[in-house]
Amino acid sequence: MEYKEYKTPRVILHLDMNCFFASVEQAHNPELKGLALAVAGNPKARRGILVTCSYEARAFGVYTTMTVGEAKRLCPELVLVPPDGEKYRQASIAVFDILRTYTDLVEPVSIDEAYIDITAIGGLEDAVGIAKSMQERILRELDLPCSIGIAPNKFLAKTASDMKKPMGITILRKREISKLLWPLPVIEMHGIGKSSAEKLSSAGIKTIEDLATADELQVKLTLGKRGLRLQERAKGNDTRIVDPEAAEERKSVGSSTTLAVDETELDACLPVFEKLAKKVADRLDKNRLAGTVISIQIRSSAWRNQSRSKTVLNPLYREQDIFREASDLFRQHWDGEPIRLLGITVANVIPMEELHEQLSFDNYERHAKEVSMEDLVTQMNKKFGPGTIHKGK
């Protein structure tokens, strides 16, 4: 989507809800306000994982991803509640509805964050006033706190929103990055995770300044083309526009196959979905994408086409997660009619560097165990060739 060129520099806001799940729980139940509160995937299990926690809990050293047992030892009075996805989704919709009363240029990035382009409605001169108005309305109307970053581009706006929490408003100018960002370890930069930080460190790139000033060839050899994009952002450059249609019209990644014979048995169809899930996951990985909508396609021997979809809270990109969701949809909706074609599509995709996974329900324990194994398998296959190593089912 193209937008007109403004004569004045762009002014982008990044709005990030503070302790979103916990804040929604406190808004729905005022008795929880002021308490050390945590949302936990399994509150009754001491090994359950905290999805998020309030700032009151963080004051005791409690943090997201900690087990219930560990958190209780640090804060015996910690109040635990189970996650409620629908409650959080409704709160998210209400937040974005408020933002759209200011401008149509609102791009939701995840359930609790969005970019807003205010260049045409006040620009830098009115930026703080607009941000304060948004922040105050969300607090007054929804009883939810948020922090807002103000900057000339998406990367700097997102960085700024993290600088003051809760209820912060921060302006980050490009001329300030050498003082405020460059001294930080490279892992502190948005878009760089542990694996990328380790690769950069092995190449002698340890701070954000090191990345910004490194030789381009060295960065490309270390992280590929993505490394060059990250280097530009380390310099404070980011040309991505705020696209209000992005959340609903993202490109999709899919794969389908026509079966050798018309299948009528579930056990014969599931292996097909496994192969399709792997193809989709490989394509997502190649393009560094993840998506929040999964759909399956079923074409019967009589050429009757069906499509069933599901929106998930956490973006999908792992093979086993895609297979699980697709096979569940298939079990729920297949009517037993002989099948000629099967397909899987992951839609509403976002770049992995923008991925902000909201740990929820029961996924963190599984997620935490799988990340290291996923990384190992990926590294081995890249070294010895695709398909060399497979995870056990």
From TrEMBL:
Domain of life, source organism:
Bacteria
Name what cofactor the protein needs.
Answer: Mg(2+)
Query: GO molecular function terms here?
Result: DNA-directed DNA polymerase activity
Give a yes or no for keyword Zinc in this entry: no
Q: Any idea which residues are catalytic in this one?
A: E113
Residues reported to bind Mg(2+): D16, D112
List its EC numbers.
2.7.7.7
Site annotation (Substrate discrimination): which residues?
Answer: F21
The record's subcellular locations are: Cytoplasm
Which terms are listed as keywords in the entry? Cytoplasm, DNA damage, DNA repair, DNA replication, DNA-binding, DNA-directed DNA polymerase, Magnesium, Metal-binding, Mutator protein, Nucleotidyltransferase, Transferase
Q: Which reaction does it catalyse?
A: DNA(n) + a 2'-deoxyribonucleoside 5'-triphosphate = DNA(n+1) + diphosphate
Q: What is the UniProt remark on how the cofactor binds and its stoichiometry? A: Binds 2 magnesium ions per subunit.
Q: Where is the UmuC domain?
A: 12-193
Family affiliation:
Belongs to the DNA polymerase type-Y family.
Quaternary structure? Monomer.
Task: Describe the task this protein carries out.
Answer: Poorly processive, error-prone DNA polymerase involved in untargeted mutagenesis. Copies undamaged DNA at stalled replication forks, which arise in vivo from mismatched or misaligned primer ends. These misaligned primers can be extended by PolIV. Exhibits no 3'-5' exonuclease (proofreading) activity. May be involved in translesional synthesis, in conjunction with the beta clamp from PolIII.
Protein name per its UniProtKB record: DNA polymerase IV
From the broadest rank down, the organism's phylogenetic lineage runs:
Bacteria, Bacillati, Bacillota, Bacilli, Bacillales
